[in-house]
Specification:
alpha/beta; Dihydrodipicolinate Reductase, domain 2; 2 domains; 4-stranded mixed β-sheet; 10 helices; about 30% helix; RNA3'_term_phos_cyc; RNA3'_phos_cyclase_dom_sf; RNA3'P_cycl/enolpyr_Trfase_a/b; RNA-3'-phosphate cyclase activity
Length: about 475
Amino acid sequence: MAAPACDFSSGGAVAAAAPPHRSPRHITLDGRTLEGGGQLVRIALALAALTGHSVTINHVRGNRQGKTGLKASHAAAVKLLGEISGSKVTGGQVGSRSVTFEPPVFEGEATDILVPLASVTPKPEYNIHLQTPGSVFLIFQAIYPYLLWVGSRPDIKTIRVNITGGTNGTNSPSFDYAVQVMLPNFKKLGFPAAEVILHKRGWSTGKVDMGSVSFILNALSSSGTLYFPPIDILSFDRGKITKVDITILAPDDYLSGTETSGENQTIRQYCEGQVHRTLRKALRKLDPALFDQAQLENTDNRGQIPITLAQSEATSHSARFYILLVADTEQGFKIGHDALGTAQAPQRPKQPGRNKHKQVKKGAKQEQTALEHIDEFIQGCIEGLVNEIVGLGIDVSNGQTSDVKAKKRSPLDQHMRDQIVVFEALGKLSGERATNGAETTEDERYWTLHTKTAQWVCREMLEDRQ
């Protein structure tokens, strides 16, 4: 299904418009638009709670293969937002293919852009308990904008949200990515510091295992009128890479095929060394201009940027194999790329018997395949980070005439770029828009389908507030 064109990139200074009309309206969204998954639902619900607009989403997650409709994480977010805002929710149960969220009509000024803080009294602490290890960080994405806003009441210091669910799962941000990439980048962009406390990891791979985290959220800061901070992503330069951190979560099972190094290694031990070696080799092939010159000239670094093992943690199942690579930039941004897969731990050698030689040969082949698979997994993750660093490798502004706008890449990795779209849109509601130089626009080739979907939802939900 084709979606209306929309563009939330910054294109220079824009004069503040006249105050928008405040009357709430009812908006209907087709859940099959663009990416057509859960992100559309999460952003729409957050903006409905913030603006007071009612929203109906039909064909929820209609582009997903297999089961469509609300997942447990979506239903939990709907329930909490409805509880805090006093909204009426219809179709908020797991599996629902149509959900309606109707905030109450509140007293306020005709020029109010978001719901008045006096209209809601949040609690200092909330608890969410999923029955399956659905992603706690997808729930966080849905509730974070609203809690930032309502938590800014003068009588609220912080809001704590405790969520039981999954911290490391497929197709969702991990605890490690959230702590090492997402939250530091939010802070860099002007948002209040937030804390995530890990009580226990929860995995959606291997044997089902529930985890638990707590989010400690601080209020938006203000000097005078309270708004979300305006974000001009193009006013930030990515800067050069200063170092790369490695996080490895892997089993401590013995890994055959590593004896040639003179010692037996576990899967995790092997990965610690192999990730470092393969990453170093890959970075050597890149243009030195991508890296901080001071780090390259540091004699302790031997002409290379530092690569640090930031965290190594044992897991209890071969399907719980996770790598996160985070490149720091000189401007303070974090560029991340991660991968979750299986280590395919080798089986124990079979007992010698009638087919002794055949059994040993078969076992050896299985174990070597596991080693090869791990190497391929590591290589794929490293290639992902390199692609984030290098990009498309095309300078689109080179040779352009003065009447053609230059294109600029954002300083964020592609997944992080998805996360800030809603905050870019909310930041524009204040009427204050910073300038990055009137001839610069963002290079849309780096926008994922998730980014484009988020932009479309923001346009539909905030059209009367721009």
